[in-house]
Amino acid sequence: STASLAAQMWGVNDDLNFLWCFPVQKSGGTQLKLVMSFPNYGQALFKPMKQERHEETNVNLYYFSDFERHNAEIAAFHLDRILGFRRVPPVVGRLVNVIKEIKDITTDHKLVTTFFMSPVGNACFYGQCSYYCSTEHAICGRPLKIEGSMAAMLPDQSLAPRRSWRSPWRRSYSRSKLAQWATDSNYCDSIKKTPPYDRGTRLVDLIDMSILDFLMSNMDRHHYETFEKFGNDTFLIHLDNGRAFGRHSKDEPSILAPLVQCCRVRRSTLLRLRLLSLQSYRMSDVMRASLSQDPLTVVAPLLTEQHLSALDRRLETVIQTIQDCLQQHQHHSDVIYDDIADLRQNLS
Amino acid sequence: STASLAAQMWGVNDDLNFLWCFPVQKSGGTQLKLVMSFPNYGQALFKPMKQERHEETNVNLYYFSDFERHNAEIAAFHLDRILGFRRVPPVVGRLVNVIKEIKDITTDHKLVTTFFMSPVGNACFYGQCSYYCSTEHAICGRPLKIEGSMAAMLPDQSLAPRRSWRSPWRRSYSRSKLAQWATDSNYCDSIKKTPPYDRGTRLVDLIDMSILDFLMSNMDRHHYETFEKFGNDTFLIHLDNGRAFGRHSKDEPSILAPLVQCCRVRRSTLLRLRLLSLQSYRMSDVMRASLSQDPLTVVAPLLTEQHLSALDRRLETVIQTIQDCLQQHQHHSDVIYDDIADLRQNLS
């Protein structure tokens, strides 16, 4: 059924695809998003486009009041896959008809009251939420269709309960305070001794995530999730990437703090990063090729060239950071967690 | 004392000028503005810059949720003067230090709580109001100074009470309804018979105002004011022009409805319009020269060249509209109200 949903989301015939979709506003979170239900297929989380791809986040905005970007959700899925993590559920871009595919078929009465025609005749709506849900921030078709991201929803919590973990390197979410990790350079020493980071792969999982986030400049990773059933011996789920790719002209070194402070990384991750720094497998080229398969590419490339070259620049920083770690430590194994040897051992 | 205030506002020494100014937030209205009090001199209304001069209003925004623009307030004062009306109180641009000239000296405790330093170290604040007063819409210095308009405040209502008049050509302020004038082409016939528009100059005053508004594309003229003391034999005050100059690429013919529907205009206004359409007195050139005297010109011209040439284009439309009126009416005097003959008669 996941395959059916994927086929449906990637399909070309809009009208057919959405005949049986029932959009309602998703509660929780600060910005407008819709849950699209496809009976017998599952659900998708729809985030509408709010700003042009070439616009960089306003320098005066804090990470916690930045817009969410539909193309960031899509690009994060591709980047995570290219890095070999595969921890972001599938996300695909779609053009959606504001009237036929949302207003006319929604069962969400509050949502319906927020639709209007703009002065130039575009179909608009704004929903109800705490940020950016007002007539000044309406989401408008041109004239009817809007771009958006469709993320495959994970199984319902009743079927596959998940646990949400507060990231140890979570930011302060305050304009005036700094989190402990931001001022304490020995912070990782205590985290390494704290369950669940004191055993298994949880710490290197977290560092993988911080590498992903640094590459796409996502400062908004306050939590991550796991499936409860697998306990602590499990992978992380990288949900909610809408605030990535806000700026291409600047890097944010603090996102890499887990790697810098712990000096620890999976061998498979390092090998993949090195591969993607080779001329023939450049990260920007692989991303461009991967993103070109998304349906929204017909409107415009999902990431501008500036964002793609920022990826190459940031990749160099990550590799250099690992080099520095290796020089600071006596034993290669202090830095590199050899997951490939582990895997061989398990298979033999 | 008006001269002193003007001198103070036009002065060059920032620190000296503002040593004795006490800024507080102005209540009423939907967007942030501050009242600056200069003891012994009077008060000025400060509207901070919110968007870049080259940005056009979003096509999906209705006139009643558009941003207010500090440069529109300044340019409206100059345009009104160039048209010979002199019905906009003096407005001048200023660079203001967010910390020293607002935060440190305000007595407005609610305002103080909204100041913060942005991630890149710019001084910001957002105030409290119904539109755009939130951290996502903060007003930020670069790093400390912000641009803004300073409008000389009229004498206090206790000294010179004013009356606020609802414009007969007020828009509906609704996304779905149209005002009566927008659908009834005989609307002016009834207005002409309704006091105070049935005698004196009130109707041509209103038409002057609509010409000003059409030229600067101001759709937000819901009211105008007069001084109570002068009764109905008085001039109009053109206050609150912050939503003018939102778009240069498009004209809004409906703003000219009073002229089109009433086919009546002051002779002195027509002569001034014709003068400003001559090659040697082109409106755009006169405006450019006039605006260049404003202190903010050192940052950037107050109006972009596109806005200046829109003025010339719209002026042609106004003159053509009057030509059409003259052709439709038998007698010249049906259209032209000869205020110059009136003036001669009064003087002889």
Structure in words:
- The structure is a homodimer of 348-residue chains.
- Chain A is α+β, with helices and mostly antiparallel strands.
- Chain A has helices at 2-10, 14-18, 70-82, 98-103, 109-112, 187-192, 202-216, 257-262, 267-275, 283-291, 305-328, 332-335, 339-347, and strands at 22-25, 34-38, 42-48, 91-97, 115-117, 123-125, 139-140, 145-152, 162-166, 223-227, 265-266, 336-337.
- In chain A, helix 3 (70-82) packs across helix 10, helix 7 (202-216) runs antiparallel to helix 11 (305-328) and helix 10 (283-291) packs across helix 11 (305-328).
- The longest helix of chain A is centred in the last third of the chain and has 24 residues, at 305-328.
- The model of chain A is unreliable at 1-19 (pLDDT under 50).
Describe, in short, the structure shown.
Chains A, B: Its main location: Golgi. Chains A, B: GO terms for molecular function: ATP binding; metal ion binding; phosphotransferase activity, alcohol group as acceptor. Two copies of one chain form a homodimer. With 348 residues, chain A is an alpha+beta fold.
